[in-house]
């Protein structure tokens, strides 16, 4: 008897940007209560998700590999193993992409939330990427290492989940951590400050050969809600007003510039464009392509009719 498959194919997808290869790696997804979404009622939000055929308030978790100049950078590190049964697949997908942890020489952090730093260290506190320099925005490091900011969080479990775990996961990289405020952070990669979700939340513009891709981090968590309704914010936003303002600015920018982008919480493989629709916007996920450039024209003149 033929066995039925019990798992999907590896979550790996490549995109060529000039001479740079960006690889999306799927870490999994998290289904979270609607109470984590603010400025929209649970009923309205649930109806919008239902209309989009989504079973729940589902947030995908992605990370990205950048191969440039003979070097390898990882953008974010996912949730790590053991967080939830539906996440923690980054290590397996990194291996499927042909990259060993010791080959990663730079880890670029969009920000320090558990679904981004969880995969930096193992349960024994050892660095999973032993040769990597870790880079993050100076404001991000300052905030999560600020004891006064930590003490303003009344809930002890939440305090440990965000502040405590951020410090423990970054600890093995202490001697090889550097900060930036913008500018070049890796060959062909420029840091773009996008504050609000966290104080040092950062996107990364990948550019080569006249092509570019913006890895926009956590501009949206639930695209079915936040793209048609950019005023919708998340309970984990440190500065909700700034997060909304940044989201509206980036929506306008990528739509006006026809800028390709990718996101940590867009549905895998997470590459997309933005179109204007009336007074709002519409997400246009890039079609799966066998061509690594994604939008290369195909000459069909030699095809044999089916």
Sum up the structure in keywords.
single chain; Metallo-beta-lactamase, Chain A; 306 residues; 7-stranded mixed beta sheet; 23% helix; alpha+beta
End-to-end distance: 34 Å
Largest sheet: 7 strands, mixed
The name of the CATH topology is Metallo-beta-lactamase, Chain A
Number of domains: 1
Number of contiguous helices: 8
- Identify the CATH class: Alpha Beta
Overall form: globular
Helix content: 10-25%
Helix vs. strand class: alpha+beta
The amount of beta strand, in percent, is 25-35%
Number of beta strands: 16
Strand order of the largest sheet: 1-2-4-5-6-7-8
Low-confidence stretches: 297-302
- Please trace the helix and strand order, writing H or E for each element: EEEHEEHEHEHHHEEEEEHEHEEE
Mean pLDDT metric = 95
Rg calculated over all Cα atoms: 19 Å
Organism: Humitalea rosea
Keywords: Hydrolase, Metal-binding, Zinc
InterPro entries: MBL_superfamily_lactonases, Metallo-B-lactamas, RibonucZ/Hydroxyglut_hydro
Protein name: Glyoxylase-like metal-dependent hydrolase (Beta-lactamase superfamily II)
